[in-house]
Design a protein that fits this description.
The protein is mainly α. It has helices spanning about 5-15, 20-25, 30-55, 65-90, 95-115, 120-140, 150-175, 180-195, 200-205, 205-210, 210-235, 240-250, 250-260, 270-285, 310-315, 335-345, and strands at about 300, 305.
């Protein structure tokens, strides 16, 4: 993992964590779907203007190979807005954010497994089961918080869309979306296309969205939590895996929970708090990678440094001659210690069927 992408992803998570509390604090009379549509339309328009002013040729640089992931990302973006804001409206900012971005790493891992063929082992299965159990606890009725089952369902839909968006954005970067201008152009396209899907609800809510409190809410959501946060996210995503990005999005429920308790005065009963802890524990199992198999795998010698568990010298007692560059070979031969011992005895690597003097 390239650590340079971590601060960008965390910054996106912090900004996203203000969405739910901001919606509750503004007390807008507009429907959740109308607010979500206004958010991504304003954010997409802001990014589009910025791209046209600074890099007008960025839209023409988007190749056809990137259209499918862009279409998937646009659909996921629009559906996410409707699901997330509906969840906040029905079950509160703290619980809705915990469900959506608590399950986001799980959905991202599943999508990465299906689309990118990433491994999905027993650890991830166990973490998924733990996270689902946490969500079940969150749905238990309580007097201090309203964990509405429909709100939880909307949150699960939004979490699924988050995973689809993350993997689609990662696939876009693999298919040619490498420059900052292309990324900004692609993000604006997905936001505007997703907002177009929600346009009927947004248009119906224009009278309420025009009120000062709603207008201020849309301005914050559009510029800060959409244009800036999405750019932070996709830029950081270029440097880490999709599963890692999903895990780092857990900064959002942390920020939202702090704001919900400190600013909004929301409280969580013991079962909901225990569910949140269980959910995060499951995500920890999913997020923390298993111990690398470097100690079990072969160590390699590059002529100057060793990689893996041990150096060739410490295994064989001397630097094997086969570690030197053979005539006509493009680079140094890299041998595992066990293979080096076989070659010292004049053996042949049965796996590659090459003689000890052959160049790999």
């Amino acid at each position: 993992m390239n650590s340079s992408g971590v601060p960008l992803l965390l910054a996106a998570g912090v900004l996203w964590g203000t969405v739910g509390p901001a919606q509750v604090l503004a007390g807008s009379g507009a429907s959740p779907v109308a607010i979500g549509g206004a958010r991504i339309l304003s954010g997409g328009a802001f990014l589009a203007v910025a791209v046209l002013v600074t890099r007008p040729g960025a839209y023409r640089a988007i190749g056809r190979r990137t259209w499918p992931p862009l279409a998937a990302a646009a659909t996921a973006t629009g559906t996410f807005q409707a699901g997330f804001f509906s969840a906040v409206d029905r079950t509160g900012a703290a619980v809705a954010t915990a469900v959506v971005f608590g399950l986001a790493p799980v959905s991202t891992g599943l999508a990465e497994r299906i689309v990118l063929r990433a491994p999905f082992g027993r650890r991830r299965l166990a973490g998924t089961a733990c996270a689902v159990a946490g969500v079940a606890l969150l749905t238990l009725p309580g007097r201090a918080v309203h964990a509405d089952p429909a709100g939880i369902a909307f949150g699960v839909v939004a979490a699924t869309c988050f995973g689809i968006y993350t993997v689609s954005a990662k696939l876009f970067t693999r298919r040619g979306g490498e420059s900052a201008g292309e990324m900004a152009a692609a993000v604006s396209v997905t936001l505007l296309a997703g907002g177009a899907v929600l346009l009927p609800w947004t248009a119906a809510g224009l009278p309420e969205l025009a009120r000062p409190a709603s207008a201020a809410l849309v301005a914050w959501l559009g510029v800060a939590t959409t244009a800036a946060a999405y750019m932070f996210f996709v830029t950081g995503l270029r440097r880490v895996t999709a599963a890692t990005a999903g895990t780092l999005s857990l900064a959002e429920p942390l920020v939202a929970a702090v704001l919900a308790v400190a600013v909004l005065g929301e409280r969580m009963p013991a079962p909901a708090a225990a569910g949140s802890v269980l959910l995060l524990a499951g995500l920890g199992v999913v997020a923390v990678p298993s111990r690398a198999r470097g100690t079990d795998g072969p160590a390699r010698y590059d002529g100057a440094n060793a990689t893996g568990a041990v150096k060739v010298e410490t295994t064989t007692g001397e630097r094997n001659k086969s570690a030197h560059r053979a005539p006509g070979c493009p680079g140094p031969v890299r041998r595992a210690p066990a293979r080096a011992r076989r070659e010292q005895r004049g053996g042949c690597d049965a796996r590659t069927r090459r003689s000890p003097s052959a160049c790999p």
